[in-house]
Amino acid sequence: MNRLKPGTIGQFEVTVKNEHLASAMGNTGVDVLATPMVAMMFEAAATDALKSVMKPDEISVGTWISVYHLKPTPPGMSITVRVTLIESRGVKYLFDVEVHDEVEKVAEGKIERAIIDKDRFYRALNEKVEGGRKKEE
User: Does CATH number 3.30.70.330 belong to domain 9-136?
Assistant: First the structure.
Protein backbone atom coordinates (compact mmCIF):
# COMPACT_ATOMS: atom_id res chain seq x y z
CA MET A 1 0.00 0.00 0.00
CA ASN A 2 3.02 2.33 -0.14
CA ARG A 3 1.50 4.92 -2.42
CA LEU A 4 3.94 7.76 -1.72
CA LYS A 5 7.66 7.77 -2.36
CA PRO A 6 10.27 9.13 0.05
CA GLY A 7 10.86 12.79 -0.70
CA THR A 8 7.15 13.60 -1.07
CA ILE A 9 6.50 17.09 0.33
CA GLY A 10 3.54 18.59 2.19
CA GLN A 11 3.13 22.16 3.34
CA PHE A 12 1.00 24.32 5.59
CA GLU A 13 1.13 28.11 5.94
CA VAL A 14 -0.54 30.37 8.47
CA THR A 15 -0.19 33.77 10.08
CA VAL A 16 0.09 33.56 13.86
CA LYS A 17 -3.08 34.91 15.46
CA ASN A 18 -4.10 35.42 19.08
CA GLU A 19 -5.77 31.99 19.20
CA HIS A 20 -2.42 30.36 18.32
CA LEU A 21 -0.61 31.88 21.31
CA ALA A 22 0.52 30.12 24.47
CA SER A 23 -1.38 32.75 26.46
CA ALA A 24 -4.62 31.63 24.76
CA MET A 25 -3.94 28.14 26.14
CA GLY A 26 -3.59 29.25 29.73
CA ASN A 27 0.10 30.17 29.79
CA THR A 28 -0.56 33.71 31.00
CA GLY A 29 1.76 36.38 29.68
CA VAL A 30 3.40 34.18 27.03
CA ASP A 31 2.25 35.86 23.82
CA VAL A 32 4.10 33.66 21.31
CA LEU A 33 3.18 30.69 19.13
CA ALA A 34 2.19 27.77 21.40
CA THR A 35 3.88 24.39 21.09
CA PRO A 36 0.51 22.55 20.79
CA MET A 37 -0.27 24.77 17.80
CA VAL A 38 3.07 23.78 16.25
CA ALA A 39 2.01 20.13 16.63
CA MET A 40 -1.32 20.93 14.94
CA MET A 41 0.61 22.53 12.07
CA PHE A 42 2.72 19.35 11.71
CA GLU A 43 -0.54 17.43 11.30
CA ALA A 44 -1.89 19.87 8.70
CA ALA A 45 1.27 19.69 6.58
CA ALA A 46 1.43 15.88 6.75
CA THR A 47 -2.25 15.69 5.80
CA ASP A 48 -1.46 17.89 2.81
CA ALA A 49 1.22 15.42 1.69
CA LEU A 50 -1.17 12.47 1.96
CA LYS A 51 -4.31 13.92 0.39
CA SER A 52 -3.27 13.28 -3.21
CA VAL A 53 -3.22 9.49 -2.68
CA MET A 54 -6.20 9.08 -0.39
CA LYS A 55 -9.34 7.42 -1.68
CA PRO A 56 -12.78 8.89 -0.87
CA ASP A 57 -13.42 6.12 1.69
CA GLU A 58 -10.17 6.81 3.59
CA ILE A 59 -9.02 9.23 6.28
CA SER A 60 -5.62 9.93 7.75
CA VAL A 61 -4.96 9.87 11.48
CA GLY A 62 -1.98 10.85 13.58
CA THR A 63 -0.16 7.99 15.29
CA TRP A 64 3.02 9.58 16.66
CA ILE A 65 4.62 13.02 16.89
CA SER A 66 7.86 14.53 18.18
CA VAL A 67 8.12 18.33 18.35
CA TYR A 68 11.19 20.40 19.14
CA HIS A 69 10.05 24.00 19.57
CA LEU A 70 13.29 25.96 19.12
CA LYS A 71 12.44 29.68 18.94
CA PRO A 72 9.48 31.93 19.75
CA THR A 73 7.27 33.50 17.07
CA PRO A 74 5.16 36.61 17.80
CA PRO A 75 1.61 37.19 16.59
CA GLY A 76 1.32 38.61 13.09
CA MET A 77 4.29 36.68 11.71
CA SER A 78 3.84 34.10 8.94
CA ILE A 79 4.71 30.45 9.54
CA THR A 80 5.57 27.83 6.90
CA VAL A 81 5.56 24.16 7.85
CA ARG A 82 7.13 21.68 5.45
CA VAL A 83 7.07 17.90 5.82
CA THR A 84 9.17 15.46 3.81
CA LEU A 85 8.30 11.77 3.68
CA ILE A 86 11.24 9.70 4.90
CA GLU A 87 9.66 6.27 5.27
CA SER A 88 6.45 4.36 4.64
CA ARG A 89 5.47 1.05 6.21
CA GLY A 90 2.15 -0.37 5.13
CA VAL A 91 -0.46 2.25 5.97
CA LYS A 92 1.96 4.39 8.05
CA TYR A 93 3.94 7.35 6.74
CA LEU A 94 6.81 8.98 8.67
CA PHE A 95 7.76 12.57 7.89
CA ASP A 96 10.60 14.92 8.85
CA VAL A 97 9.28 18.39 9.67
CA GLU A 98 10.74 21.90 9.61
CA VAL A 99 8.90 25.05 10.66
CA HIS A 100 10.11 28.53 9.69
CA ASP A 101 8.77 31.94 10.52
CA GLU A 102 9.75 35.02 8.51
CA VAL A 103 13.14 35.16 10.25
CA GLU A 104 14.38 31.67 11.15
CA LYS A 105 13.70 27.99 11.78
CA VAL A 106 11.47 27.83 14.86
CA ALA A 107 10.65 24.12 15.17
CA GLU A 108 11.52 20.69 13.85
CA GLY A 109 10.54 17.13 14.48
CA LYS A 110 8.86 14.07 13.07
CA ILE A 111 5.28 12.97 12.58
CA GLU A 112 3.72 9.67 11.63
CA ARG A 113 0.26 9.39 10.11
CA ALA A 114 -1.72 6.42 8.88
CA ILE A 115 -4.23 6.18 6.05
CA ILE A 116 -7.14 4.04 7.18
CA ASP A 117 -10.65 3.02 6.14
CA LYS A 118 -13.11 5.70 7.28
CA ASP A 119 -16.07 3.35 7.90
CA ARG A 120 -13.98 0.91 9.94
CA PHE A 121 -12.61 3.79 12.05
CA TYR A 122 -16.09 5.16 12.84
CA ARG A 123 -17.51 1.68 13.52
CA ALA A 124 -14.79 1.13 16.15
CA LEU A 125 -15.37 4.60 17.59
CA ASN A 126 -19.13 4.05 17.84
CA GLU A 127 -18.57 0.68 19.54
CA LYS A 128 -16.34 2.42 22.08
CA VAL A 129 -18.95 5.12 22.73
CA GLU A 130 -21.73 2.58 23.12
CA GLY A 131 -19.56 0.42 25.41
CA GLY A 132 -18.81 3.45 27.58
CA ARG A 133 -22.50 4.32 27.82
CA LYS A 134 -23.34 0.79 28.95
CA LYS A 135 -20.75 1.03 31.74
CA GLU A 136 -22.40 4.23 33.00
CA GLU A 137 -25.84 2.61 33.25
Answer: no
